[in-house]
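HOLO CASE FILE
Compound: iron/sulfur cluster
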Amino acid sequence: MSSDKHAHPARKDLAARVLDRTGVDVARCYQCGKCSAGCPLASEMDFPPSQVMHLLQLAGMGPEYADMALRSHTVWLCLTCEICFCRCPMELDIPAVMDALRHESLRQKKVNPRARSILAFHRAFLDSVRYTGRLFEMGQVVDYKLRSGHFLQDLLQAPWMFLVGKLHLLPERVRDRRALKRIFAGTRQAGEERP
Amino acid sequence: MARIGVFVCHCGENISATVDVARVASEAAKIPGVVHSVDYKYMCSDPGQQLVKAAIQEKGLTGVVVAACSPRMHEPTFRRACAEAGLNPFLCEMANIREHCSWVHEKGEATTHKAIDIVRTLVAKVKKNRALQPIKVPVTKTALVLGGGIAGIQAALDIANAGHKVILVEKEPSIGGHMSQLSETFPTLDCSQCILTPRMVEVAQHPNITLHSYSELEGLDGFIGNFKARIRRKARSLDEKLCTGCGLCTQKCPLRRIPSEFDAGLGLRPAIYVPFPQAVPNKPVIDREHCTYYRTGKCRLCEKVCPTQAIRFDQPDEIVEADVGAVVVATGFDIKHADFFPEYGYGKYKDVIDGLQFERLASASGPTLGEIRRPSDGKVPETVAFIACAGSRDPAKGIEYCSKICCMYTAKHAMLYRHKVHHGRPVVFYMDIRAGGKMYEEFVRRAMEEDGVQYVRGRVSRIYERGGKLVVKGADTLLGARPVELEADLVVLATAGVAQPGAEDLAQRLHVSYDAHRFYAEAHPKLRPVETNTAGIFLAGACQAPKDIPESVAQASGAAAKVGALFSQSELVREPLIAVVDRQAPPVYSSCSGCFLCQGACPYQAIKREEIRGRDGQLIKTVAKVNPGLCQGCGTCVALCRSKSIDIQGYSHEQVYSEVLALLNRGERDG
Amino acid sequence: MKTGFYPGCSMKGSAREYSESLLAVARELGRELPEVPDWNCCGATAAHNLDRDLALALPARILAAAERQGMAEVLVPCAACYSRLSVTRHELLEDEELRRRISALVAADYRGSARVLNIIEWLEAVPDLEARVRAPFARKVACYYGCLLVRPAGIVKFDRPEDPQSLDRLMRRLGAEPIDWAFKTECCGAGFSVSRTDLVAELSGRILEDAVSRGAEAVIVACPMCHLNLDMRRPNIEKRAGRKFRIPVIYVTQAVGLAMGLKTKALGLQRHKVSPSALLAPASVQPAAGATSASGDSPAGAGSPAGERRP
Ligand SMILES: Cc1cc2nc3c(=O)[nH]c(=O)nc-3n(C[C@H](O)[C@H](O)[C@H](O)COP(=O)(O)OP(=O)(O)OC[C@H]3O[C@@H](n4cnc5c(N)ncnc54)[C@H](O)[C@@H]3O)c2cc1C
Ligand code: SF4
Ligand code: SF4
Ligand code: SF4
Ligand code: SF4
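Model generated. Tokens follow.
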């Protein structure tokens, strides 16, 4: 008899991978629903957080459950506000699970189409950091517009921000650019390809 | 010359699957002194025991080693068999080759070798065993019952009705416990007070029961049949013999704004008070912490109005000593209070209350005379949210276990609310409904079907106040975990049942063990649920785990039956596995040097001084002597004695050394 | 003890006034706040959404640089950066293997010696704050902590996660009267400001709604992201809610600065979308008495909002 309760030699499903990466054992979730009750965006989600946990619990039953979790809009809507983790009676770090699912969803190219603008924003953000080391808000806005196709949105804000001195036309840069290059090169899977 | 018999058991397959039992028997036969060695499928069975008996008689055995399971299981069985065959039972030893060998190792050569070694050590030991006689001690046929809730009351009455004396000790000014606070009880909805108060009165009037209310146990010494209890009777600040319970003092006390414990903080009481009208005894106490006289030295109004001059401001606590033969612990439980819950406002919102407070609101003797009115403004609530599992099943902030009673009392509360406020809307937020028990599921169904209580499955995330309403943020997990927002006028938390605050302290006084949640531990979770690991101390009611009234009462009667069985004997027989101090012929008399280190170390105060005098009466030396009635055989003194003058019978130095030597010398002796 | 300063990207751009007011206050207090040398972006929401190592490496580089400078603590005024830096420090201290891997990635042996400090901790530690108050900030304020100052509680270990009190205590020291409200730690929509402005408008709207319904005259924040959502997204909020909110949103450092009598320009108060001018008029709350004031808000259409709107 094995004493290690995490040793599921047969389990290589998504729940096992989530356990590996986050230390969260979804089997501990007893579906109380408290996370969904407190989640600010539960009503916008296709699967509120407790249901994502349940999909993971069912991952061993067949590939369709893991697939539903990875293709969910939820994982991209999660704001990492940490409310659910803070109140989960089982102390399950749901935001960490959401992070892991996002990464997996990117890797398996299963990003929910409705999350397009959210993902475009994240990528534009990282583009800016990649090239300057810092967030260049002006550059990011332009980049985002190109990636998301939302050309008009927010264009009205830019002149005002510029006026009150909040938007700069030229980026600030980190001097040690090679250091950043190394970081981005070493973490290459990060949102490289366009959606 | 020793003639030892070895009996190796297969224990079905429990041992034989991993240990080569036939080899163990044949190897044992080679050990010097062993004259008989066999193996058998079930040594504990009748034919198995017969093998032992026959060998004793046929081969004239002087010692027996049964290689089988733990002595905790079958040592008594085989010792009895030996006695029946005419061998002193203390010449029989168990070699535990199951728990210590077959169960914890894989099948193989090494495992069999270990089993042989275990047998070898026990053979070496049994050769040095001496015939011993059991010790007899008298039984004091008085029981001490701690806690006067329904469990303690039931246990006390059952024992008293069996004709034994009972001393009942209750910490609070009155007996009754939590049950006295309840309005109506599931699953029958009968009035709690109506069924409880006759029992309380019976306790007060029973000739066999001595009640010490407002009292606590200071200490307990001794052992089964022979305990000595010290009880502190806290000063009531009045002479109970003179007080007639007229209640004038409680009416006249000018201090009237102390939150009443009985009303769970929802009502107020004076400084001199009787917790509730049906209290037993119906005599007030002065709450010295609040009383104006004790705080400022002025007032003494109660003293002036008391028609019998019963008030005694300078009364001291009193310590009472009593000899008792058995103890029933029935000290009950506590609940987590509303200020425990961070996301429900840390007790900030007056209209977020706990279940006991709801009981008081629903009770005719409560602060609202049984009308459901919310604490903040006295309004009758139109919508009441009941939240189950508040703090229970919550490893993060509360406790991980299920408190067991709250599903039922929540259904009861929702029902009572509906009965009292016909247009009211009760909504229960729950995770699971646990209604196992006679008529329990039916009771919950009735709440839903007949009384229209709404059940929403999902744990509430948060409660906050907005415009005089309490916003309850939940989710309905049966509707896709959809968020639910309910505006309630009152929220009742079914808060977790936990051990009472002084539980550890009392456990230490009693030398009983408790579990991780500070509930008292039963001796065996299935087979000995009313006993503790300390002989003569029994458990009843919610001090062992949260439970409802029927279960508490059943356990109390069980504990009382155990006490009755104990008291049915006039003497108790104990194993003679106790310490003895060396005695030998003159001129040495004893190797004890009289340092008496042992005396101070003995946790049971069993060591006395004995003066050895010559024929002329002259003192030769003073040495230690063990009182066999008190010694528990713990061995503390043995470890301390520098001249090795104390031995535990059955575990003497000589026996233990020969066991060790048998292991060390096994190579030389028998290859 | 040397305290470093990590401004983070938004304090150089959209939250410029946060850093202006912080530095003005620091100057007044005689505290030096040297920037962490050659700091980079912490990666914010985007990094941890897309890649775990990146989300750890970016903050690790910052913390390692601070360490190299002998900084015992780093003040991180932006709550979002504070969270990323705290999480990184926690995770790397918990997991030696991970610490080594990330250290290699940022080419520095990160040890975790520098403590990460949020703005409230830094201000709380000013012993004579009360004595420096020239113009008591005598307003009813809604202290808004947002998500990341107090959560995850096991990592940031700051205040209590439900109904926190530290910012309320601080504001009381300035003469303000913090209201008891329900949305102290509810999410404003965070990083969705641009990508899902509709959701931000909804979530931030609920926060403002609760604050004004309980009579707050200002929302006090400690996070550029919260400020962006509650202030710059005001038109979106109002459109979604179908009503106007005049309540200004100011940084805690601006409130401290105002109480210390610093100039509004020095505190960057002119850079807000919703003008805080109402806060500059005579106080409504007697600092000592704590009298209540009428709410400064009105439903849509009724009366005109005080805050002038720039295009
Ligand atoms: C809100 C609520 C509603 C409930 N409703 C129902 C119901 O409808 N039906 C039902 O069957 N059950 C109900 N219960 C459960 C019921 O209250 C318990 O089953 C019952 O009270 C247990 O009895 P007890 O004697 O074991 O413990 P308690 O009632 O807790 O009594 C213990 C007694 O021991 C005393 N004591 C404690 N420590 C010491 C000490 N050191 N020395 C001396 N005395 C001490 C206490 O003062 C108390 O008098 C309800 C419980 C709650 C909380
Ligand atoms: S709060 Fe925790 S236990 Fe409850 S459903 Fe969510 S993840 Fe599961
Ligand atoms: S962290 Fe994500 S899933 Fe959890 S409550 Fe916040 S938004 Fe919802
Ligand atoms: S002396 Fe104490 S108990 Fe008596 S009346 Fe005065 S306050 Fe009440
Ligand atoms: S009895 Fe019911 S309410 Fe109480 S802890 Fe158990 S499941 Fe929860």
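CASE NOTES: The pocket of iron/sulfur cluster (ligand 2) is lined by residues A 29-35, 49-50, 53, 88-90, 92, 94 (CB under 6 Å). Strands of chain C lie at 3-5, 73-75, 115-117, 140-143, 177-178, 218-221, 249-251.
CLOSED: yes
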